[in-house]
Amino acid sequence: MVESGVGAGAGKGDRGPLYAEPPTIEVRDLHIAYGGRSALSDVSFDVYRHEIFGIIGPANSGKTSFLRALNRMSDFVTGMEVRGDVRINGKDIGDWRNVYALRSRIGVVFPLPVGLPMSVYDNVAFAPRLRGIRRKSELDDVVERCLTRAALWDEVKDRLDSLGSLLSGGQQQRLTIARALSQEPELLLLDEFSIAVDPVTTMRIEDVLRELRSELTIVLVTNLVQQARRLADRTAFFLNGTLVEIGKTEHLFEGRVNDERTSHYIEGRFG
Amino acid sequence: MTPVPRARLSADTAAMDRRDAAWYVDRIAQWLVFAGGVSAIVFIVGIFVFVTREGLDFVLGSLNLREFFGSIAWRPTSNNPTYGALALIVGTASVTGFAMLMSVPLSLGVALFIAEFATGKTRETLKILVEMLAAIPSVVWGFVGMSIMNPLIIETFDVPVGLNVMNAGLILGLMAAPIMTTIAEDALKAVPDSYREAAEALGATRWEVIWKVVIPASKNGILAAVLLGVGRGFGETMAVLMASGHAINLPTSPFDSVRALTATIAAELGDTVQGGNHWGALFTLGILLFVVTFVINLTADIVVRGIGKE
Fold first, then answer.
1. Complex ipTM, two decimals?
2. Which of B119, B201, B208 is closest, CB to CB, to A108?
3. Which of A177, A267, B45, B57 pairs with B29 at a CA distance of 20 to 30 A?
4. What CATH architecture applies to the domain B90-258+297-309?
């Protein structure tokens, strides 16, 4: 396994000023297994503030398991074991006694849009209400701001009271992004968000993500190699539960790779 | 166009009309299934027609609506018989109400535990136990009410009679609990896990997930479960007959004995003259029960169907 770009060894100099700060996410020797069957092993890398970090790889490569470990969704999945260190802003996520507080700082967007069975407004106001915000005017502000940032406000501002699950697939996916933003996360995790979304909406969401980069750190798991190319600053290639390679996205797509499997995958020879 | 070989073409023509074993089996199976489906309708209509016919003479002839619904004087064997069913209606309602008061929170709690928290062996064992609870014959429940609950209530609450609303209500609650638990659990399980994950990812605690997402999403199924439990309570006869005290009385506390509609029919029907007024009055009680349970079940059904629309 080749791990260029892990830790200080890869040299921060060639990465520009973005990487001057300490990393937002530090992953060290992460192992994930389901009932003894390994899903991801021996993975170490850093993710920096305000970058879009892409993770590509074929099915069963451990991408989704990695995201689940990040917000400790693993806690409630029976049989899922996570070993190793994951630090967010220098703090080991295993040390958070209140896992709900940890999760409320991480926004997650799932592959298939999940409009909770409540109105559009209540979907976005769900997390703020959990945090104890009750004032209508304050909630109104949050809802409008998040829906605007997710490029959905203009389409739904007249039907905030209708069921979220009645929106189209693409709208629902933007609704879930708005919902993820409503908790003011520092970290946004997206898991193959464009599976159930049409190409035009995908492009709109990608524009949204580019704008959000200035405010938060984004980890983007995608099955579309070209999507990683369009969006990610750096990209990691997972294969069969291992990290094959990590590097600047443009380098990987120029063929400057350390492992030929990476270029094979990127060129579409398998996967 | 490619020419079709002659031999195959003629073979296919023969196959079009062939009635082989599989064809007959298919036909017979269709008819049997159809007959099975229709028989459900035939039986329910048949029962309704029978009960109505037996009670109709009385309803049209001697029934005094004001007395029936307004008086507690149920004296069918008196020289001057009166048929006031109010005490019976209130008796059934109070026992069922008490039963639901006990049973709804209990059943929903068990359903929540099975559906949301229990895993693996615990879950399977609990489900089996709940289903076994449903298999206990009602006369056994009545026996429990008479021989265990009766002295227990007398001793615990220091009351003269232990066969009362509380006794019958508790027994009935335990009897209605399995069906409510099973249906409510099905409703909770029908909520997609993606809802739970989405809410958890937003930082909701497990209780917040249940209270704010899972229960609202399954409220129709839960309501249907409660209604079916009510229907079960309404129609139960033997256990209520044995545990309620079977005394015509308007209850003012859970410690008063009452008499239920169903128990009255069961206890008196054998001693009446077929076709007489008493007979007709009992069948009128039957019509009342039939209509009430029918409405409750229909409501539950409509409510369950509401789930599909959302």
1. 0.82
2. B201
3. B45
4. Orthogonal Bundle (1.10)
